[in-house]
C-alpha cells in the first residue's frame, strides 16, 4: 500500500468508520479515538496491508478495539448491568427513530455490531464475517436474533406511531 492509497483510504472510509463506531458505543470522543487508533494501526502496517483490503482491515481493527474497550468498561463498572429482557415496548413515543435507537441500544454487543454493519452500513454477510471474525452463518443468526428482539421490543407499530 502506498502513501497516496493510505490518504485515499482516509477520504473514503473515515466517515463510515466513525458512524459505525459512534452508533455502537454512543460516545463521540471514544469513537474519534477508536477511528484514529485504527488509522494509526493501519499506518504502522501500511507495508503489509493490501490496498484492496484496506476497508476490511479498518473496520476489523475498529471492531476489535471497540470490543476491548467495552470489555474493559464492563470489568471496571461493578454493579450496573443491563438487563436485556424481551418485553414489548410500552412507552408512547411519537418518533419511531427514537424507539428504534433505544431498542438497538438494548441489543447484546455482537448483535448490535452485525446489525449496524448490515442494515446501516450496507455490508454483505461475508464482509461482516471477515470484520468480526465470524462465519457467514453466524452473522446471519446474530442478525436474525437482533431483528426478532427488535420486533418484540417495539411491538405493534400502531402503538408506537
TrEMBL record:
Matching InterPro entries = RNA_pol_sigma-70-like, RNA_pol_sigma-70_dom, RNA_pol_sigma70_r2, RNA_pol_sigma70_r4_t2, RNA_pol_sigma_r2, RNA_pol_sigma_r3/r4-like, WH-like_DNA-bd_sf
Record carries keyword Transcription: yes
Outline the extent of the RNA polymerase sigma factor 70 region 4 type domain.
99-150
SUPFAM superfamilies given for it? Sigma2 domain of RNA polymerase sigma factors, Sigma3 and sigma4 domains of RNA polymerase sigma factors
Query: What is an annotated GO biological process for this record, any one?
Result: DNA-templated transcription initiation
The molecular function terms of the Gene Ontology recorded here are: DNA binding; sigma factor activity
Q: Which UniProt keywords apply?
A: DNA-binding, Sigma factor, Transcription, Transcription regulation
Domain named RNA polymerase sigma-70 region: which ranges?
Answer: 12-75
Q: Which family does it belong to?
A: Belongs to the sigma-70 factor family. ECF subfamily.
Q: Which PANTHER family match?
A: RNA POLYMERASE ECF-TYPE SIGMA FACTO, RNA POLYMERASE SIGMA FACTOR HI_1459-RELATED
What name does this protein carry? Sigma-70 family RNA polymerase sigma factor
Q: Which organism is it from?
A: Maribellus comscasis
Amino acid at each position: 500500500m502506498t502513501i497516496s492509497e493510505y490518504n485515499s483510504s482516509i477520504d473514503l472510509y473515515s466517515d463510515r468508520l466513525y458512524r459505525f463506531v459512534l452508533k455502537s458505543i454512543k460516545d463521540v470522543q471514544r469513537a474519534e479515538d477508536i477511528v484514529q487508533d485504527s488509522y494509526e494501526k493501519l499506518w504502522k502496517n501500511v507495508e503489509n496491508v493490501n490496498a484492496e483490503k484496506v476497508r476490511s482491515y479498518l473496520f476489523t481493527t475498529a471492531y476489535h478495539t471497540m470490543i476491548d474497550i467495552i470489555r474493559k468498561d464492563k470489568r471496571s463498572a461493578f454493579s450496573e448491568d443491563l438487563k436485556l429482557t424481551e418485553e414489548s415496548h410500552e412507552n408512547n413515543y411519537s418518533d419511531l427513530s427514537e424507539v428504534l435507537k433505544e431498542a438497538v441500544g438494548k441489543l447484546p454487543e455482537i448483535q448490535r455490531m452485525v446489525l449496524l454493519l448490515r442494515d446501516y452500513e450496507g455490508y454483505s454477510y461475508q464482509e461482516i464475517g471477515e470484520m468480526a471474525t465470524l462465519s457467514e452463518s453466524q452473522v446471519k443468526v446474530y442478525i436474525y436474533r437482533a431483528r426478532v428482539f427488535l420486533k418484540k421490543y417495539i411491538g405493534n407499530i400502531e402503538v408506537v406511531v
